[in-house]
């Protein structure tokens, strides 16, 4: 039996779904208590802020999130797009006989494209081409990749690439990361990723608050299903909330992995890895008895080597690959030439599918010996999580299943954004039948009534998060400042003007 009902009926109809519970809104004040006098009423004052954060942050970042979902959807399926668009370069017409030595293939590539050989990617499949990546002046961080038929030595095509990616994949990657707007685009995308987990968390708290009202009214899974009996804004809210609940886990994961790749939060993450001694070990490519060349190393996206210091890189490549294979480097590999005369070759496994194979070896071509080795097994757990998370974020870790999951998440996020804006439109301030503004401002002084342990833990936690995710901290301060000023202006505007 319900004690609070908006319906004159006193007996529910069991043949149809029950109407939306009339339990008090978590953001509504407690009529049985004086505001600010109990911990319960103080906690109720947190709900309006949670709702306002969810609403305003969602409005702020939803346009970029929609673009990120669309571009991420396209990027997740770039292997299939590449297979169609670049089929003439990536695949050979006919598999016939034995492959030519890699040295002959490299020389064929250098004959049509002058430059310093950076990396060579032998074909991982029988009908795949060999990729020879050359550093060419004037291309900045990009390279020129020559695709060679490993059976005939015929050059199949030449493209300007970035970190081994085809032009289309590189273009979609940059669109996903910065909308091709440079630094402003990177900042905006990092801000959106910084707020995504806040929006999801706030929405999950609101959903859990509503889910508690279903207890005792039917199966607990009811909150995971659309309310088909709802109409109008209630139907829109049901679709928005339920879809968001199903997507919450993967959206939080994508937010976290995206931040590790960002400029500012990514730098904080790298600092934390160094402090925890959890960075991935680096392969020593210095020739024994010499000092390493200054610089070196790559960012999150990787990249090719510096221009080779080997006069004829083609001369040693077959022996280097044979030595690496003998050292257990099976599967797809990428061969990098020495950075200068003091360096040696490196061979890295590039199989990013689970279970991943990411070992690396350094090979001295003059002696045919392995001079250093880095194994995936010895990589610290935090570096492993970061690497695996990024591969999942890119849709590479579990192959087609990974791509389908990301595609479903992208489409679901687009639906959540659409229903969020539709819900706002249905509750827009210009409607004559609008019941209430979204997000009642918390009462002044309500924070002082929160439990002291919560304050002692919460304030430092917020400061720590603001430091770890700088774009979140900066925009949060701006949001609270603007919201406070608007609240003060409204209170002043509605204050009595009489002098008594």
TrEMBL record:
Positions with biased composition (Gly residues): 294-306
Name the UniProt record assigns to this protein: PepSY domain-containing protein
Ranges annotated as spanning the membrane: 53-77, 192-209, 241-261, 404-425, 454-482
Low complexity bias (residue ranges): 1-10
Domain PepSY: 100-159
Organism annotation: Actinomadura spongiicola
InterPro entries hit by this protein: PepSY, PepSY-ass_TM
Region called Disordered, residue ranges: 1-41, 277-313
């Amino acid at each position: 039996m319900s004690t609070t009902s908006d319906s004159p009926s006193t007996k529910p109809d069991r043949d149809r779904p029950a109407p939306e519970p009339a339990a008090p809104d978590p953001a509504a004040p407690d009529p049985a208590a004086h505001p600010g006098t109990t911990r319960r009423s103080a906690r109720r004052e947190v709900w309006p802020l949670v709702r306002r954060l969810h609403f305003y942050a969602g409005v702020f970042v939803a346009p970029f999130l929609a673009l990120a979902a669309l571009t991420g959807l396209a990027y997740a399926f770039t292997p299939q797009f590449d297979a169609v668009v670049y089929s003439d370069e990536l695949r050979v017409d006919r598999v016939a006989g034995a492959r030519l030595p890699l040295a002959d293939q490299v020389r064929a590539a250098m004959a049509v494209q002058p430059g310093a050989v950076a990396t060579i990617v032998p074909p991982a499949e029988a009908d795949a081409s060999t990729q020879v990546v050359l550093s060419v002046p004037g291309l900045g961080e990009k390279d020129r990749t020559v695709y060679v038929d490993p059976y005939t030595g015929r050059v199949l095509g030449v493209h300007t690439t970035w970190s081994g990616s085809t032009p289309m994949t590189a273009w979609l990657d940059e669109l996903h990361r910065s909308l091709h707007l440079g630094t402003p685009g990177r900042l905006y995308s990092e801000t959106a990723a910084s707020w995504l987990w806040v929006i999801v968390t706030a929405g999950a708290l609101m959903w859990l608050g509503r889910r508690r009202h279903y207890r005792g009214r039917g199966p607990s899974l009811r909150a995971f299903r659309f309310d088909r009996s709802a109409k109008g804004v209630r139907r829109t809210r049901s679709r928005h909330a339920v879809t968001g609940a199903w997507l919450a886990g993967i959206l939080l994961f994508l937010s976290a992995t995206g931040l590790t790749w960002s400029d500012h939060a990514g730098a904080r993450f790298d600092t934390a890895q160094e402090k925890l001694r959890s960075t991935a070990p680096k392969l020593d490519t210095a020739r024994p008895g010499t000092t390493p060349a200054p610089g070196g190393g790559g960012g999150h996206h990787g990249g090719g080597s510096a221009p080779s210091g080997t006069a004829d890189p083609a001369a040693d490549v077959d022996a280097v690959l044979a030595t690496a294979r003998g050292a257990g480097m099976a599967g797809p590999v990428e061969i990098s030439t020495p950075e200068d005369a003091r360096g040696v070759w490196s061979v890295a496994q590039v199989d990013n599918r689970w279970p991943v194979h990411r070992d690396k070896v350094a090979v001295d071509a003059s002696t045919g010996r392995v001079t250093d080795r880095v194994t995936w097994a010895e990589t610290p757990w935090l570096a492993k999580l970061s690497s695996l998370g990024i591969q999942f974020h890119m849709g590479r870790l579990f192959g087609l299943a990974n791509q389908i999951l990301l595609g479903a998440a992208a489409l679901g996020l687009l639906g959540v954004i659409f229903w969020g804006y539709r819900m706002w439109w249905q509750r827009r301030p210009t409607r004559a039948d609008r019941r209430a503004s979204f997000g009642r401002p918390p009462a002044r002084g309500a924070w002082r009534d929160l439990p002291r342990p919560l304050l002692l833990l919460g304030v430092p936690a917020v400061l720590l998060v603001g430091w770890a995710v700088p774009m979140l901290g900066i925009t949060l301060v701006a949001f609270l400042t603007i919201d406070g000023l608007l609240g003060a202006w409204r209170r002043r505007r509605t204050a009595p003007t009489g002098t008594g």
